[in-house]
């Protein structure tokens, strides 16, 4: 029986290898990742419909191709996933029948939901063992983001304004004149979240997995430049992610894990004290912006006891989509929200929130199942990273529309897709074999 199992697995793996995506697709996928990273910088200088549409067309074709390749291998996960996602989109589109703009709907779908379906591409990458290649590309983007920030910092805010950067949009000053820069992205928030996502994914490169010192270097660069960015919600995401990874690492009882947990709790008060002092010295504990948001939410959110509170105001009615449609001259609320939960509520109502809870819970349950199947020797630990990263995104979403920030949202969903697919059938898939290059 063991021999028959081995032959069956070998045949299944050989069949998957024979269906491996073409080199054209692989190159296109990695090129798209690079293009998404620098698109924000390009859009500052080029306001062209072709340039703006190129990224969307690329994501549509790549996600459709990926879905066609992974669907039959992931039917049990994807059928409920597609049903819930489709229900959310239909619910969010109902306002078109009540007179809402179709253009607003399209912008809402392409800003929030198009990056989400790149999850299929993440699954395809894992299916054909391209995880290391994906991580390498993220490492390249990570270094590009840092280099771009350093160049902008050396130029200064005044020089950047003369070069076409818009103050208050692409660049700005934080308290006491600390610069907030966009690097190769469109905004300081976009830079901070792209840096965070690519830094975490870059820790999954072969060099980082095999050499702890290289992984620690990436982690130090990530937290250092996150602190320099002064984007506090991104720092919150990083902190929650680290805490989540720590508890997932020691979740199994051993003497070593018990010792680690004991030492951690002993050192925790000192870490909180000195960490708080450091954040206070950089004015990162200021509450003025949070108070402004609370006032804005109280005066602008739709009542849950109305029809719009039940089914929402339509996809794209608030958030990044509403800001964009306002810029092109359409009648729009121009309401950024700065809270992903409220943004989803405004667009799909409390019925949509129920669907979203079911949607994310289905992903969490699936990740936990993948995690439980992993051998202890697995060094990538993608499901654990996916769960910790999801917890961080959930925390940061309290003050930021995290799922609307390009390119970080694309990287996030692709990584979740990889974590969901890993070890679907067997625990002995070798990452080297069949790696996408």
UniProtKB/TrEMBL annotation:
<feature type="transmembrane region" description="Helical">
    <location>
        <begin position="78"/>
        <end position="98"/>
    </location>
</feature>
<feature type="transmembrane region" description="Helical">
    <location>
        <begin position="21"/>
        <end position="42"/>
    </location>
</feature>
<feature type="transmembrane region" description="Helical">
    <location>
        <begin position="216"/>
        <end position="239"/>
    </location>
</feature>
<feature type="transmembrane region" description="Helical">
    <location>
        <begin position="104"/>
        <end position="126"/>
    </location>
</feature>
<keyword id="KW-1133">Transmembrane helix</keyword>
<feature type="transmembrane region" description="Helical">
    <location>
        <begin position="259"/>
        <end position="279"/>
    </location>
</feature>
<feature type="transmembrane region" description="Helical">
    <location>
        <begin position="405"/>
        <end position="423"/>
    </location>
</feature>
<feature type="transmembrane region" description="Helical">
    <location>
        <begin position="138"/>
        <end position="155"/>
    </location>
</feature>
<keyword id="KW-0812">Transmembrane</keyword>
<protein>
    <recommendedName>
        <fullName>O-antigen ligase-like membrane protein</fullName>
    </recommendedName>
</protein>
<feature type="transmembrane region" description="Helical">
    <location>
        <begin position="349"/>
        <end position="368"/>
    </location>
</feature>
<keyword id="KW-0472">Membrane</keyword>
């Amino acid at each position: 029986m063991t021999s028959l199992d081995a032959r069956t697995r070998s045949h299944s793996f050989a069949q998957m290898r024979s269906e491996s995506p073409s080199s054209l697709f692989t190159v296109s996928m990695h090129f798209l990742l690079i293009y998404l990273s620098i698109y924000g910088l390009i859009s500052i200088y080029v306001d062209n419909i072709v340039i703006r549409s190129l990224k969307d067309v690329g994501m549509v074709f790549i996600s459709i191709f990926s879905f066609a390749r992974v669907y039959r291998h992931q039917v049990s996960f994807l059928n409920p996933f597609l049903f819930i996602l489709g229900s959310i989109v239909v619910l969010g589109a109902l306002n078109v029948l009540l007179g809402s703009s179709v253009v607003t709907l399209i912008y809402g779908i392409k800003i929030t939901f198009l990056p989400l379906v790149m999850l299929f591409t993440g699954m395809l990458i894992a299916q054909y063992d391209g995880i290391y290649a994906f991580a390498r590309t993220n490492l390249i983007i990570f270094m590009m983001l840092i280099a771009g920030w350093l160049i902008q910092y050396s130029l200064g805010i005044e020089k950047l304004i003369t070069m076409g950067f818009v103050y208050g949009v692409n660049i700005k000053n934080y308290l006491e004149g600390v610069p907030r820069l966009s690097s190769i992205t469109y905004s300081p928030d976009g830079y901070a979240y792209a840096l965070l996502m690519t830094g975490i994914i870059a820790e999954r490169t072969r060099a980082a997995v095999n050499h702890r010192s290289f992984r620690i270097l990436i982690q130090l660069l990530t937290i250092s430049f996150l602190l320099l960015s002064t984007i506090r919600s991104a720092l919150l995401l990083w902190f929650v992610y680290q805490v989540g990874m720590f508890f997932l690492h020691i979740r199994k009882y051993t003497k070593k894990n018990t010792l680690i947990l004991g030492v951690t709790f002993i050192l925790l008060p000192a870490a909180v004290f000195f960490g708080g002092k450091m954040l206070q010295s950089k004015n990162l504990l200021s509450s003025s912006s949070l108070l402004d948001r609370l006032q804005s939410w109280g005066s602008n959110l739709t009542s849950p006891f109305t029809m719009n509170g039940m089914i929402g105001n339509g996809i794209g009615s608030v958030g990044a989509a509403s800001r964009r449609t306002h810029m092109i001259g359409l009648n729009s609320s121009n309401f950024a929200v700065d809270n992903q939960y409220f943004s989803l509520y405004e667009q799909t109502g409390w019925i949509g929130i129920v669907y979203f809870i079911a949607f994310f819970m289905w992903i969490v349950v699936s990740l936990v199942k993948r995690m439980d199947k992993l051998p202890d020797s697995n060094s990538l630990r993608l499901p654990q990273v996916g769960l910790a990263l999801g917890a961080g995104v959930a925390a940061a979403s309290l003050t930021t529309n995290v799922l609307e920030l390009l390119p970080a949202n694309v990287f996030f969903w692709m990584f979740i897709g990889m974590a969901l697919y890993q070890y679907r059938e067997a625990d002995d898939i070798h990452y080297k074999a069949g790696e996408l290059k």
